[in-house]
Amino acid sequence: MAPSIPHLRKTPTSSQLIVNGKPFLMLAGELHNSSLSSAEYMRTVWPNMKAMNINTLLGSVTWEMIEPEEGRFDFAELDEILHDARTHDMHLVLLWFGSFKNALSTYTPAWVRKDVKRFPRVHVSEAGAVIRTEELVSPFNPQAWEADAKAFGKLMQHLKEVDSEHSTVLMIQVENETGLLGDSRDRSRMANELFKKPVPQPLLQHLQQASSNSLHPKFVQRFPGIHSLTAGEATWEDCFGKGPAAEEMFMADAFSKYISHVAASGKKEYPIPLYTNVWLNVEDDNSNLDVDLPVIVGGGGKPGVYPSGGACPHTLDVWKFNTGPHLDFIAPDLYFHDYESVCIDYRHGNQPLFIPEQRRDEKGARRVWLAYGTYASLGCSPFGIDSELASEAAITRHYGLLSSVSSFVLERQAINPDDVMGFFFDELDEDPKPRLWVRQFGKFEITIDRAFVFGKPGPGAGLIIHLGDGKFLLVGWGFNFLVKSVNPKATFSSILHAEEKVVSRNQEGAVELKTGRVLNGDEHRHGEFLMMANEDPDYGGFPIAVTPGCRTMICELEVYDIEEEEEDF
After folding, report:
1. 137 CB-near residues (< 8 Å, 6+ apart)
2. Any transmembrane segments, and where (predicted)?
């Protein structure tokens, strides 16, 4: 692979995005769906995005936009956008809205949507067994995926010609939130006939022969009997039971094969990273939700309420088998679900994590620290970012600080990702349960707690990096850092020394951390804990300002323990 084009490079537990030969952390935002269709509109957007500390924008390129008539391709608008992105030193992740967008086919060209003989639709069953036609191209139709793959291949061929020397475009999302709404499976004549046929032998053998550890835990939980099936042909219902569960897996097989055909066409032309995204489901007990809202808001609890056949955690094994080398990873859209549990789900098997859509408010912005820190995310991307002002957007402050330390995060991710831990604390009324973040680094157990002076405890977010030998880099605000030795011979542990750090650049342009204030004694409570307070701590009316507010939001400290003999007492 040519070193100049973006690609993924393996790390001990995941992968990093390599751009122009160096690891790159995407501090991303996703545009509204139509924004990237107009270079003129985008010229009003670029400066605001730079002021927001964003380095990568996600935006759609639609099939109808580049192939309005079959066989006639038009990339003029896209080329203007690429040129302007380079001018503003901005990277792009392009979202291919081809056959599927949010479980519909409304971004296909008119010549596809009108020709139901060549491109038949999905049909769903309404109450009373009435069959309804959906605005959704059938995933079982080879002619549809061949046309989509041809268009996607042309797009990737064009990007290779105009952008391979620039690496403006870092990755491509293939389709968007694929699946079927309104029913658990397609009820068309074609789909009905295929559903009666056996599960494809290669897929069934893979699921049966894979160890329970390699299969996704949520697949194993739902289908514990997959390994005990007798040899021979088995239908979808034999494998997954009658009803929606089998029908969802049937649709997952169809959609993932379709996406694989499209992705393969593009990968052959220009092999930069490709992925697809997911509209998440809600578990039966709502355990994976992070909000007190109706289930339907979070994505729905039944296939068809959320897109049936999409790459949810329990269908990931089917998706990853069928998409094989053509998709580099699968990414969750993460708005209302428990952030950490979804990160864990989509890091399964050491696949890289990327959050292509998430909430853009302060609550969402705080969570990116967990993704970048603990789960080594390639990037996070608040949605609808172009309708916010940098001066008011929550992400501006968070990305600004992350950008200043991104080289240190990337360095640790490449060597030992377990040396980095991210965390967040919501407002108390949003997160009434006490939350502690605990991790062992070498012989020290580190606890990150919510910062508290005397008044109302506030929100916070950040990450810590273990630098080795008891040294840590602390980044963020609103938290306390506490240390305890796990050495059974240790009789005492404490903070030895702490310094506020200021970001600067050397003559070569590399980021350096210079010492600002020394934060010893009172500032770390004489070794008990170091508080990374908010900029303006709430003293609750207490007359003594015992804790100064954070200034640079970066601190380096060293912890130590001692071993004492009996005669030392």
Report:
1. 99, 100, 105, 108, 112, 119, 120, 121, 122, 144
2. none
Asked whether 57 and 29 are in contact (CB, 8 A), the reply is yes
pLDDT tens per residue across span 357-379? 999 999 999 999 999 999 999 99
For residue 428, give both structure tokens. 């108390």
Predicted confidence at residue 432, as pLDDT, reads 65
- pLDDT tens digit sequence for 334-353: 999 999 999 999 999 999 99
Residues 6+ apart with CB under 8 A from 525: 531
Two tokens, residue 502: 């200021």
The domain boundary residue, chosen from 397, 415, 433: 415
Q: What is the mean pLDDT of residues 69-73?
A: 97
Per-residue pLDDT reduced to its tens digit, 427-444 = 888 876 778 999 999 999
Report the amino acid identity of residue 42: M
d(CA 327, CA 345): 17
Tokens of 114: 């009108």
Same domain, 58 and 188: yes
Least confident of 19-23, 240-244, 548-552: 548-552
Tell me which amino acid residue 136 is. L
Residue 411 and residue 541 share a domain: no
> In the predicted model, what is the mean pLDDT of the chain?
92
How far is residue 261's CA from residue 99's CA, in Å, rounded to a whole number? 12
Q: DSSP state, 339?
A: H
Continuous segment of H or E residues that includes residue 512: strand 511-518
Q: How far apart are CA 328 and CA 18, in angstroms?
A: 14
In angstroms, rounded to a whole number, what is the distance separating the alpha carbons of residues 60 and 356? 12
d(C-alpha 519, C-alpha 541), whole Å: 24
Q: In terms of domains, do 49 and 97 share one?
A: yes
**What's the confidence (pLDDT) of residue 525?**
76
109, two tokens: 């060209």
- Report which residue type is found at 214: S
CB half-sphere exposure, 484, CA atoms < 13 A = 8
Tell me the whole-structure pTM to 2 decimals: 0.94
2 lies in a domain?
Answer: no
Beta carbons of 162 and 86 less than 8 angstroms apart: no
With respect to residue 501, please indicate whether it lies within any of the assigned structural domains.
yes
Same domain? 292 vs 250: yes
Is residue 30 within a helix (H) or strand (E), and if so which, with residue range?
strand 26-30
**Other residues' Cβ atoms within 10 Å of the Cβ of residue 506:** 8
Q: Which domain holds residue 444?
A: 422-568
Length of the chain: 569
For residue 253, give the nearest of 194, 182, 172 by alpha carbon.
194
Residue with tokens 């139901």: 116
| Whether 411 and 436 share a structural domain | no
> How are strands ordered across the β-sheet holding 511-518?
420-425, 460-468, 471-477, 554-563, 490-505, 511-518
Hey, CA dihedral for 410, 412, 418, 422, is it positive or negative? negative
Question: Which residues make Cβ contacts (< 8 Å) with residue 387, sequence separation at least 6?
Answer: 32
